[in-house]
Amino acid sequence: MLLLRCPYCGVDADETELAPGGEAHLTREGPNSSDAAFEAYVFLRRNPRGVHFERWRHAYGCGKWFHAARDTATNQVFGTYTAQCSAPPQDLLDRIADATGGERA
Amino acid sequence: MSYRLEQGGLRIDRSRRIGFSFDGRGTEGFAGDTLASALLGTGRRVMGRSFKYHRPRGPVTCGADEPNALVNLGQGGRAEPNQRATVTELFEGLTATSQNRWPSLAFDVGAINARLSRFLPAGFYYKTFLWPRSFWKHVYEPVIRASAGLGRPPEGPDADRYEHLNVHADLLVAGGGVAGLQAALMAGRAGVSVLLVEETAHWGGRAVIDAATDGARIDGQPVADWVAAAVAELGSMANVTMRLRTVAAGLYDHGFALAWERVTDHRPWDDAPRHRLWRIRARHVVTATGALERPIAFPGNDLPGVMLAGAVREYLTGYGVAVGREVVVVTNNDDAYRTAHALKAAGVRVPAILDVRSGVASGAPAAAREAGFRVLERSAIAKVTGGSSVEAVTLTSGETIICDAVAMSGGYSPVVHLWSHTGGKLLWDETQAHFRPDPDRAPLAADGGAAATAAGAATGGLTLAETLASGGQAAQAALTRLGHAEADAATIATAEPEDVLPMKPVWMMPAEATAAQRQKMWLDYQNDVKVSDVQLAQREGYESVEHAKRYTTLGMATDQGKLSNINGLAILAQAKGEAIPQVGTTTFRPPYVPISMGSIAGEARGGLFQPIRRTPMHALHDEAGAVWEPVGHWRRPFAYPQKGETRDEAVQREIAQVRGRVAMLDASTLGKIVVKGPDAGRFLDMIYTNMMSTLKVGRCRYGLICSENGFLIDDGVVARLGEDEFLCHTTTGGADRIHGHMEEWLQTEWWDWQVYTANVTEQWAQVAVAGPKAREVLESLGGLDLARDTLPFMSWTEGRLGDIPARVFRISFSGELSYEIAVPASRGPELWRALRRAGKPHGIVPYGTEAMHILRAEKGFVMIGDETDGTVIPQDLGLDWAISKKKDDYIGKRAQMRPHMADPERWKLVGLETLDGSVLSHAALALEDGQNALGQRRTQGRVTSTYRSPTLNRGIAMGLVRHGPDRMGEVLEFSRVTGGTVQVRIVDPVLYDKEGKRQDV
């Protein structure tokens, strides 16, 4: 059972307090998008074996959405960060590169 | 014949006799006994029968790995099947009955299966019950069902209570043997918080038992003294929590562990929870889980009296029970020699020690010879003879030795379950022929470092000296992981190193066994899986260890292969001509031992299983005789039957009252979400399909919410409370979901918009007053001007109604003149009573959800969850008028532009009218000629809502029909649940007051 630190309230939240939200950093495709772009936005996901940037909501806690960088194979967590950004922060990416030899990020 | 010795037994108190019953006969044991030791002490070795062949069986082990000695424990609300006698502590008044036998344990009709064993090999059920086909339902299935399962399920509710306990610890030490104690001592002294759990009722594990025979010492003290001192020191540390009878059952991700404590199983009269489930978050875990001895596969190894050598020793030393009068020891390692010495010291004859190894001129064998034992090297058992008990063994040399028990030891396998649960990897240790934890590939913690360290016999180091050393090293590793200074190695206790001769793996005895012999070599005792079965599985192509397991049921019994797995793997590997590590192990899954369902449920049963949400007026509805309907977690009145009235009659009366005069509904469960901020209008324009930003303050608008995939997920009335404040009503079940939906978009997509949302559903009590007399009722309360022009349809006002602060919304879900009055939740009952008083002159009555449903169906209003099912878009429901054409975007707009969503062939909402006036079945299908690709009848529509309308005095329905709105007046054929079909005409869904005059008066 995962334990993720909510970057808003600082709590190490048990998985039972959290609701999963799938892949992070999707770009919303609106009425002017192509069929292919819209399909990718709604249906296609990376689902990697390795580092995954994903969305979680501290549903039974402060209620905030946040992002986590987690290795889907080992459950190693490289960090959690605010949901209010469109790309992972650089220091987190550096940390992941250090930890994985830059292979899987 | 087993018997109680005149003296001895470290764990029993001979001064306290304990009465209990087995199969209805009263007998006695001593305080400290297990059920198994007490029964053995009375001379009873047969305690159960095996699953498939109903072979008589006695205990093989002295612990959790026991496959045979399973009994029904307790009676009535405390009855529990499949309890292991070996881990059941004796208490006064215990009642146990044997299982899987009829009519009695001694004479069992099912034992005929053993004679038929030739016809019941592995997988027989896949091959046997195929023909004739008609036999399946009436012959095979009833017979199989009757013979399936061990024991009988308890009847009625569990009389005991259970609880969960949530704890955090720096270090969880799983296992209270000397390694676990050593690790806990060093961690405790370093000041970290330690939780130390031990599965049994005793600290010190096997070392205490062994030391009674071999006189081993720790730091110069007798082992028992060192253990007592360690326990005392740990007990004095405030940062250490210790629990006996608590097994670490599972290790999960990120240091989560479950431990199962048996609190009152041994003193059921105590007023305490029976079991406690510990939910543990540990920063690091030491798995000091010990090792399990392996049986040897020789013909007749399942006869009562054939036991593990370590178990024979533990019954003798721990409980003063000899498992037989003449015990042959058969072994492939040194450890079983301790059993021989212990037996001899207790006055039990050991006719021979059979050692499979050769050249045993030193170490334990040599010492045994010196002590006068007859040690036969390179020797093996060819057969054990006996009926329901051991009578003799015949060796491969041809010699027959008279004996009544056999103590066997096939070596030890470390308990690697916890280590493996979250992916810790194993090494195959050639010298000891077992899998052990690979310290370089530990299960991982959140930071990518090791989550656990193995210690003690669980590492594969089996001697006392190795056990202590690895316990200390585990503590050092754990402290380093926890960021503490490493503990001084000098504080690790020591014992004399032992000179141990290497063991020699023996998977089948004799090695050149005939087919007949292999059919008598048991691997999995409980499920009756033999060497021949595993070999058969391999021949038939079940070569993967996971397939072979399922085909033969090896390791699928209640002991989950603790005893059988390695032996079975080895046989499979041999059959395949591969090495054991190539074959691999099956997956280790939690829990390590069976844990009670009650403890998993904890307090979550009865009223606490799922909290019920009640409106402020709940008690008043109860008084009024409401029958309840669950809606989400809420309870809502379905109807209010009066004396002598059926529920149906009540519903019809309530509807007539709404249409004719006036009635009232508790609408408090409707979701209420406040959306506030400078960007609130802009935000709601994205959330709803309609335009909300243009709504005027004081007005209400019905709105639709779609998912990004275009499908309708909720609806409700939005009221504009102020320039930058809206109140969004949702469906009863949708409040939390829609609030979450809004928050998700606000937080993750439009985080720069200035908007707050708050779910205020429970802060308001809300009552709908509906019917031609509604205005008169409210006006008689006074305080608000509710005239048609002051408060027109789809507007709201605020003030005091009578004495109560209220918001009044003029909205209608019934099609009648209707007001919804919202007051602070605490004033709800007061408002309800006031309305009932004020409405008395008009005969006001409360109405329930069923009347509400029928009223809205008469008006053709859709209901989320009836007309929608996650595949329906608003356009399917004729709600195009509620979709803004002016907006560039809203959630779901792009999806609704996909070709399939605009397909004219989509099933769309229509009214359905049976030609004979009957009521359509729920979800009935509209039939079409021909068949689909699967050979099923084609369909062209389905019923979504169907009721009997008292207003129209016939069945009414709505449904989705292929381009239905273009087919008004067409007659279709619908299926009936009771068989046959019914003719149905497609009509407008609005069946009552099409112009909407009644609500706008």
Automatic annotation (TrEMBL), chain A:
Transmembrane segments: none annotated. One of its GO terms (biological process) is tetrahydrofolate metabolic process. It comes from the Bacteria. One of its GO terms (molecular function) is sarcosine oxidase activity. This is Sarcosine oxidase subunit delta.
Automatic annotation (TrEMBL), chain B:
Residues 170-419 form the FAD/NAD(P)-binding domain. Residues 519-602 form the SoxA A3 domain. One of its GO terms (biological process) is tetrahydrofolate metabolic process. The keyword Oxidoreductase applies. Keywords: Oxidoreductase. Residues 908-993 form the Aminomethyltransferase C-terminal domain. Residues 617-887 form the GCVT N-terminal domain. InterPro entries: 2Fe-2S-bd_N (IPR042204), FAD/NAD-bd_sf (IPR036188), FAD/NAD-binding_dom (IPR023753), GcvT/YgfZ/DmdA (IPR028896), GcvT/YgfZ_C (IPR029043), GcvT_C (IPR013977), GCVT_N (IPR006222), Sarcosine_oxidase_asu (IPR006277). The keyword Oxidoreductase applies. GO terms for molecular function: sarcosine oxidase activity. Pfam families: Fer2_4 (PF13510), GCV_T (PF01571), GCV_T_C (PF08669), Pyr_redox_2 (PF07992), SO_alpha_A3 (PF17806). Belongs to the GcvT family. PANTHER family: AMINOMETHYLTRANSFERASE, AMINOMETHYLTRANSFERASE, MITOCHONDRIAL. This is Sarcosine oxidase subunit alpha family protein.
